[in-house]
Amino acid sequence: MKFMKLGSKPDTFQTDGNCTRYVASDLATDVIVHVGDAKFYLHKFPLLSKCARLQKLVSSGNEGNGDEVKIADLPGGASAFEVCAKFCYGMTVTLNAYNIVTSRCAAEYLEMHETVEKGNLVYKVDVFLNSVIFRSWKDSIIVVQTTKSSSPLPEEVKIINQCIDAIASKASVHVSKVDWSYTYNRKKIAEENGNDPSWNGLRNRTVPNDWWVEDLCELDIDLFKRIIMTIKNKQMVSSEVIGEALKAYAYSKLPGSGKNVIQQNDLVKYRNILDTIVWLLPTEKGSVSCSFLLKLLKASISADSGETVKMELAKRIGRQLEEASVSDLLIRACDGEKTIYDVHVIKKILDEFVTQDENSVAEMENGCEIQEMIRPGILSEASKLMVAKLVDGYLVEIAKDPNLPLATFTGIAEIVSSYPRPAHDALYRAIDTYLKVHPGISKSERKKLCRLMDCKKLSAELCMHAVQNERLPLRVVVQVLFFEQVRASASSGSSTPDLPKAIKDLNCGSYGSSRSQTTNTDEDWDAVASSEELRALRGELAALRLGNGAMQESKMDRAAISKMKGLIMSKRIFSKIWSNKAENSGSDSSESLGSANHDEVKSTPTRKGRHSVS
């Protein structure tokens, strides 16, 4: 740390321990100066020759008593006045980064200018600041920290502005030109630990782009904001480094990211920090990570920040949502909310993500023609796929909430329903979890819920699970069985059976004109499958798998027999399920899978008890 010594006479200031200070001298003191609780017994001549304000105070004399002066609002208090008094006596005074601001402000208050005497204290301090302090990174940081306790005077004498500009200028210097000492905010490498004898300090060290970040984390939010704004205005530091500075400051000042619990008495303080950090975020996408933005959003909800702050964060998160993880999205709801997680803010984020794609096509009017201009790369297929998988995983977690409304669950799922997914396994797990946690939902609600997934995109493992799942409507179980049969037939090399009209109706969720007259048919399809029906369907699926595996054996006759058995059994199952419904379906009855005699129809099992087999 740099310092400056003024004066050459020995320090003869003494104290009696009762806030009384005096100069050891043969000459009797002729003035008493009260500074706060301290009392100084001094001589007029050295003081008045350099301090214009003391001249005025003594001359005014407090109604005739010119031997006693009271100063109640001196910046820096008694210690700063002592520095000024010693300077007036010519005694040795040491100035450094810790006392330079208070000394400068006290000298300004006492009017120790060049007009009073050449080489006065204000001039000497300014020279030291500009030639030494502001050229040192660490001293500049110390100085700007000391300004918060020095009244508004540092602003008036522009010390703070000068110090902020000096810090911002050094932070904006290219790393190749950084040759001063600084705080290295990373784990020490082997050379720095002294393990490498050839290490030669800074000359062999690669200076990181964010070398200055950690030191600024020690500042109050107001000073930090002013420095960051000055750095941004110089336009020499990348948005990524600015983002790193904001991230480091947030982690150092805000509560831990575990529960994000903020005490009531600290609420205003933390809210101010949050709002400032959000306001300082660079506009460039990717300047901060999506995970950090989500942490800020969690903290803003916990601190009860304004809607403007929350919406700004939601917009920024939506622009880079593909970077997020499921755990990032699990934001706890505020106290008093019925749901466990704040699903509404996630919906806003998803809406913002989708809006990017909708806004990617802009129309420009050129004369009488309208040209369509497309911004390339707004949302790639990879981004859509990543967000679709993210939403599926998120749905699995929020489905465990017993208070989550079905409309909220389906609303989130439908936002990304058009995005491509190679598999719907995660979506199936989310739906199954919701059905398990919400057993009391109606048949129509189950039907609406199951329409979210495509049975053709379920893996073989989950197809087997679906056939055994008593929570699913019967139509979904039949769809799964049929598409598994189609898959088995295709993989074995045989011709894929045509999709019956009944299955087509199940897929599109609509019915023909003849079926629309039979409400009982719809209710049966939407009902949950009984244990007996599921047992029959499981046997069918097992037969399909055995048939498919047998085709790969060397004995073609056994393969053919297995395949035929599978096809025959599937026809019987479908005929058994649709037999009662075909009587009222008119033309549809001719398109049902296979033909079944009335004896088989009579043997259709009734639905009674429900036994979980999943």
From TrEMBL:
Start-end of Basic residues biased regions: 605-614
The entry's keywords: Ubl conjugation pathway
The keyword Cytoplasm is annotated on this UniProt entry: no
Pathway it works in: Protein modification; protein ubiquitination
Domain NPH3: 210-487
Ranges where the record places region Disordered: 581-614
Family (UniProt): Belongs to the NPH3 family.
Protein's name in the database: BTB/POZ domain-containing protein npy2
Lineage: Eukaryota, Viridiplantae, Streptophyta, Embryophyta, Tracheophyta
